[in-house]
Design goal:
The protein is an alpha/beta fold. About 35% of the residues lie in helices and about 10% in strands. The chain has 2 domains: about 290 residues, Rossmann fold; about 160 residues, P-loop containing nucleotide triphosphate hydrolases (Rossmann fold, 3-Layer(aba) Sandwich), CATH 3.40.50.300. Helix 15 runs parallel beside helix 16. Bound molecules: magnesium ion.
Amino acid sequence: MRRTFESLSDHETPAKKQKIPADVRLEKDPINEFESSHPSSCDNLETKHVCPLVNTEAIKLQELTNSKQPTTLLDYFKRANNGKNLEQSCKTSINDKLKLSGESETTDVVKGDPSCEELWEELSELVVFTSKGVQPSNKIAGFDLDGTIIVTQSGRVFPQGPNDWKLQFPQVKTKLLELHHQGYKVVIFTNQLAVGNKKISIHDFISEIRNVGRTIGVPVQVFASTNRWSMYRKPCPGMWTFMTDKRNGGISVALPSSFFVGDAAGRSKGWAPGRKADFSCSDRKFALNIGLNFFTPEEYFLNYRPASYGLGQFDPRKAVNFAGPLCNPVNAKVVNERKELVVLVGYPGSGKSTFALRHLTPHDYCRVNRDALGSWQKCVQLSESALQRGRSVVVDNTSPDVESRARYINVAMRANVPARCFVFATSLEQSKHNNKFRGLCLSSQPDHKPVDELAYNSYRSKFVKPSVSEGFVEIININFMPEFKCESDRKLYAYFLV
Ligand SMILES: [Mg+2]
């Protein structure tokens, strides 16, 4: 069967065969070197997330997220699952389906508990595979799948079928075997939106995972995230949290002796001779969120030196503490005593609605919003009638272009009131972060569904910087001021979410 993957970002361009340049090789195996410098104190089974973290980024994150109440990511899973807990939301065991269809074969493994069968589970946003012989461990060797463990055999960016794969490096098999013998549990954490979208059938995915597991030849547990807006999708830490809390036999995980390897590492073009930039940084951010040591496939399997990378312009760990100023210019007046019309301009998720509800509607501004009303014509009608009734108006739409703003400037002119424009300075990256954040907090903002990439592309293609020449008496820039209902929301915001 031919699979189509247009617009999916879960697979990276397969790595070309590269001659490894001598100057990017490390003499020592990074994990062995790491472990020898961090002796067994952290092998204590009681150490759950309390061992000192190794990289400084992780230390900063832990300091930030350690304040006050403990993280309860499960709260967000419950929200995502309409208040049900994880076990309740488990729709079905794929094992039952497989048994019904006579496909209850198990994978071959090097060693394991013969009483333990292969287990497939399908939750609302997650597929979990536990191969025969998987044992809980306090040491986790985590891997991404596509572009890390395997690449396409066809050389195409996206696989052409369930058999279009091969191990990325010959070293993969020996390294994983070594880890297994050292007592690590080998766990794959993979984003598989195509399975959730049914562009890849669950049966094809099962077939692929079984074959990969068989080829690797060690017991392996696989977590596959199937929903874009879920807490399970990397870089969100949900798959890891679910594994440690629910699928590790009650054994606490020692972070310092665990690690994660992935190809979405934020490396820029030319990080090694002839290599393209990484398509994303979600694997590295996943590891940062958790406080795990991170390696790229080349660093881990081929002993490359660490390549330079970027985390992007937006860092939620810093943004969570942004304390102002709210406006630019700083002394600009947000509320006008005179009747007026204010047009907000900004990306979806840039904070327009929160701003309007926090600063303007308490002063009797009528909030006009297209999502709520259904069309811009209704927005214009409501703006006119509110001004006629003597109220000020705030137009809470994205309004990226001159045309969309002119409709409301004309309304203001007809009512003989001034029109001002508030431009939200929130960056594209932060707006997308906010968009995902509010998707995870849907219970608190039920009327604000997250928007997809198309909405951002549309905004960017239409955007024209607002100008007083359009008819505004004043243009003010507004900074995004995070405010949280509870400490758990604050901690969630500080994670890399997209
Ligand atoms: Mg990958």
